[in-house]
Amino acid sequence: MERKNMLCKRLTIIALLTLIISTPTKAQSNKNPKATFFVATNGNNSWSGKLPAPNRQKTDGPFATIARARNAVRLLKAKRSITRPVTIMIRGGTYFLGDTLIFTPQDSGTKTCPITYTAYPGEKPIVSGGRKIAGPWKNYKDKILVCTVRQVKDDKWTFRQLFVDGKRQRRSRIPNTSFYKMEKPIDRIAFKYKEGNFKKWQNLNVAEVIVCHSWNESRLLVSELDRQQRIVRFVDAKARHAINWSGATLNQYYIENVLEGLDEPCEWFLDRHKGKLYYWPTKKMEDLEVIAPFLNQLMRFQGNAKKNEHVQYINITGLTFSDADWILPEKGYPDCGDVGDIVEPSAITLDGVRYCTFRDNLVKNVGTYAIEVNGYGNRIVGNEIFDVGSGGIITRNFSTEHNIISYNHIHHCGIVYHSAVGINIDDGGGTISHNLIHDMPHSGIYTRHWSTKTQPLGRRNQEQGLVIEYNEIYNCSQILDDNAGIFVRDSDITIRNNLIHDVYCQGRCPGWGIYLGCETRNTSVANNVVYRTTESVHVWYKNRNITLENNIFIDGKRTQINYQNPRNMRHENIKFLRNIIYFSDPAASLFRISGTRSLPVESDYNIFFCPGECICRDAVIQGMPGIDTWEKWQEADFDIHSVVDDPLFLDAANDVYFLDTNSPAFEVGFKPIDLSTVGLRGNEQKY
């Protein structure tokens, strides 16, 4: 009996020790988080993928590629063995893709069992579409080195971008940072250049000439150069417009990819015919990692909404996507057309998707738009996008609805295509909120809808609509003009509680805080703060049912409010109520009004102030006596109850536009605007 008791005690002790050893502590749990599969750069696709690191015997461990993990999930689905959410954790390191990573409807999760591809806690996985270029490098001239890239020489690869230690290097450019100006256009595809702008370059056959128009650019290939007449002629790709269209006062251009233009550190040139890469480094090449993009697209969700075959319930979180190229058609881009007309695939394309999430990722060093989403009920949140060839986020499909694009930091875009914007909604509805967008060559947010026989303008589901709110946008229009912080050509839009500032254009057309383009309808603009722009607001022709209410518009350099109607098409039901308009430059005007059909139906209960100046000094209505005094403006039945007085900002000199409690704005019904959570502020509580 005594032996039996001793045996029981020993077994109990052994069991307890086993339990203690085998049960992970909190610290151990963090080191080995639970996941269905793991991926690591030191993994092996023949292993189970169920361990976060290789075992001691190197007989099992994580997968080596994300594609292998995706295939393992497909196998689980085929066996009908998924009964809980699936998580694929990806360890830190760089994963060089051989092909675009594709997800199809068979890779979908469900509402109760979503599939998540995420970074391993505390680590930074990078998904790269590039290839390393190791050399050997040889001296070419002065500080410029050269190496032969065999696949380029064999016509199996070319690239138009180069990244060194993760940073974009500048393609050889003439002039380095500024622009040349045409002497005069000759015809649709030729212009006369000024003396010395085009020289006897040895690689003119691979040069690209970028001509900046008003709101977009052309990327042209030279077909003929007459040095005696100083005329350059380009490959005719049947442009819709002349080479100087809508930009007679600009006519500026620059030249890329000429060997002689490689004259500064960090510049490079590729002679794709000879496979020669030329580069001016700042360090020894053995201390640098040189990567050129091999893929044009990194990841694609490949659904088909028309066939009701969707990719759904897949989450991508915490990853970095980098090193994707852009494509130039054989005859170039003679006319990029409207914003977003570039048809290249985006680096990340989510097409035919529902209920997918792309969250807390970084997209950089790519050649086109960073993210494209076409589908229903998706979330693009918390991402950072910068140093991309085109814009940040784009949709191209009218069926794109109920998507949330929030808390993204989008900046320094449009490196290749200057007509790119931060967020481009080309049809569709949803919510664009709490994004921080800055340092853009064109607009911050742009939305348009083209009317068709099956989908006439203004027939969007008004319950859905598009809400643009709590975004901070600044430093736009840095290269092109005729654009805005928020630019809409659409219907059923709500624009509220946005902060927009420092939008100045470079050419003849202004940069606006908010631009309500042609045929904008059923749109509310409320509780926005706009300051330091060429013009604060532009109401273009043929607009209908527009209300601008309870906004603050400050220091439009040229004009505060522009009611423009060049085609004499009547505005319908335009209201301008309870706004604060403050401008300090006596040379600026309050209104620009291009005809009686441009007039608002109602303008009242506003606060106007320009220190020491006549408010309506320069408001002239075509076809009517000049309205150049406040009294004449009121005699025309406008702003009867409005006030000309200092709104009493607390600290306008430091861009603090809260109102003093004694502000006269409160007497006309103005309500304080709270922008404490605008942009990325407060994002830790939101998503």
Total DSSP helices = 5
Cα end-to-end separation: 63 Å
Percent range for β-strand residues: 35-45%
* Count of folded domains: 3
Can you characterise this structure?
- The chain has 687 residues and is mainly beta.
- It folds into three domains: 168 residues; 162 residues, no CATH class; 235 residues.
- It contains five helices and 58 strands.
- The strands form six sheets. It has a 25-stranded parallel β-sheet that branches.
- A hairpin with a 2-residue loop joins strand 15 and strand 16.
- The longest helix has 21 residues.
- It is globular.
- 49% of the residues are buried.
- About 5% of the residues have low confidence.
Topology:
Blueprint: H1 2-22, H2 26-31, E1 37-39, H3 66-78, E2 86-90, E3 93-96, E4 101-103, E5 115-119, E6 125-128, E7 130-132, E8 138-141, E9 144-148, H4 150-153, E10 163-164, E11 167-168, E12 170-171, E13 173-174, E14 180-181, E15 184-187, E16 190-192, E17 208-212, E18 217-226, E19 231-234, E20 252-256, E21 267-271, E22 276-279, E23 290-293, E24 299-302, E25 311-312, E26 314-317, E27 320-324, E28 348-354, E29 357-359, E30 362-366, E31 371-376, E32 379-381, E33 384-388, E34 393-395, E35 403-406, E36 409-411, E37 423-426, E38 430-433, E39 436-438, E40 445-448, E41 466-469, E42 472-476, E43 483-489, E44 491-496, E45 499-503, E46 511-516, E47 521-526, E48 529-539, E49 544-549, E50 552-563, E51 572-577, E52 580-582, E53 589-593, E54 602-604, E55 607-609, H5 630-635, E56 643-644, E57 649-651, E58 656-659
Parallel strand pairs: 1-2, 2-5, 3-6, 4-24, 5-26, 6-27, 12-21, 24-28, 25-28, 26-29, 27-30, 28-31, 29-32, 30-33, 31-34, 32-35, 33-36, 34-37, 35-38, 36-39, 37-40, 38-41, 39-42, 40-43, 41-44, 42-45, 43-46, 44-47, 45-48, 46-48, 47-49, 48-50, 49-51, 50-52, 50-53, 51-54, 52-55, 55-56
Antiparallel strand pairs: 7-23, 8-9, 9-22, 10-11, 10-23, 13-20, 14-20, 15-16, 16-19, 17-18, 17-20, 18-19, 21-22, 57-58
